[in-house]
Amino acid sequence: MKIAMMARNPNLYSHRRLKEAAEERGHEFHIFNTLRCYMNIASRRPEIYYNDGEKLTGFDAVIPRIGASVTFYGLAVLRQFEMMGVYPLNESVAIGRSRDKLRSMQLMARDGIGLPVTTFAHDPKQTEAVLELAGGAPVVIKLLEGTQGIGVVLADTKRSATSVVEAFRGAKVNILLQEFIKEAGGTDIRAIVVGGKVIAAMKRTGAEGDFRSNLHRGGSAKLIKLSPEERLTATRAAKSMGLNVCGVDMLRANHGPVVMEVNSSPGLEGVEMATGLDVAGKIIEYIEKHAKPGATRTKGKG
User: Fold this and answer.
1) What is the pTM of this model?
2) CA 238 from centroid of its chain's CA atoms
3) Angle, in degrees to the nearest 10, between helices 101-110 and 228-241
4) pLDDT over 60 at 25, yes or no
5) Domains and CATH numbers, the chain
6) Regarding beta strands 220-223 and 245-253, do their DSSP bridges make them parallel or antiparallel, or are they unpaired?
7) CA distance 100 to 243
8) pLDDT tens digits, residue range 32-90?
9) How far apart, in Å, do the first and last CA atoms of the chain sit?
10) Burial tier of 234 (Cβ tally within 10 Å: 0-12, 13-18, 19+)
């Protein structure tokens, strides 16, 4: 097979591992900087070019590893691949759902998936009302566009929560308020879902004094055994987004697992190191089984 990967940094652990896993299985693997791709949006003849005019043709599958800061352009390039009949590991529509924190929460709530109480409002005058709906302080305040723990604030008191919300809304920044799951104790679970099955899971613990457990922020990870309810929650969250491969971040609340986020481009280093599993290999195996010309369900539709 001839596989393309959209990624701005080919040297990242995850990208190197996917390339190694594909080449070990005899596949041809090319990494393209997403922002250096450009498109000819011609009727019935969609084309993608790279750098100084290299035409990207003959690919069987594409692995989108689109950074959060380039989501808009990355999804445009991925849609072009889809319209060319190239099989996407994750479809553009599904990635778009997961990147929109508000939409993803609404979709999972519709499907009855466990979530922390989450509130959203436009008018700063409604701050007190949405804070009360979220269970009051302490409360977690999240930027809709944040990632890797950036843009996440824990407000300990009603006064601090009100100040943070009013500051963000004054700057025309959209935010969510979520109940703080105190019993999680600064830890969360990252489950890797491939093809509707949890293939690996790790428990992440935040750095001392930090309620966020992201490994990028100094957290640590170790192997964990999931309960049947946690496995079901992770697979249902992936299905709700329409993602073939994703990382589902959950907290262990007193009333069961709650999903914090579904990541369409999960990092592989932490989970492979914590579990010793060949996650990259499982992803390539999934592509081998499912990549067929024109197999995209949404065919580039928004």
Assistant:
1) 0.87
2) 10
3) 120
4) yes
5) 2-96 (3.40.50.20), 100-113+183-285 (3.30.470.20), 118-180 (3.30.1490.20)
6) unpaired
7) 14
8) 999 999 999 987 889 999 998 999 999 999 999 999 889 999 999 999 999 999 999 99
9) 27
10) buried
